[in-house]
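User: Sequence in, structure out. Go.
Assistant: Echoing your sequence, followed by the structure tokens.
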Amino acid sequence: MSQLLGVIQRLKAMQDTKDSGEVPQRLFEMNGKTLCQVKYFPSTGTFELEVYDDDAKSNKYQFDDMDIAAIEIFDLLQEERDPS
């Protein structure tokens, strides 16, 4: 559960960032592998999650709820940690 809390705290920090003209973004990595990049768009209050696969391709997803974005990131981290 502490890993989920860490994800939520990072997303919350993105929301709390003062408007510097740049879109706040964070990378989420595990074992030296970048799993995804998250951007927060203050004007719309949405998160964009760009998920990278093993072929260096990516898919982008939009979330207007921080909790749902956090769960998606947490799931990615769990899949990488415990591949089945």
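User: And one key feature?
Assistant: The first strand starts at residue 25 and ends at 30.
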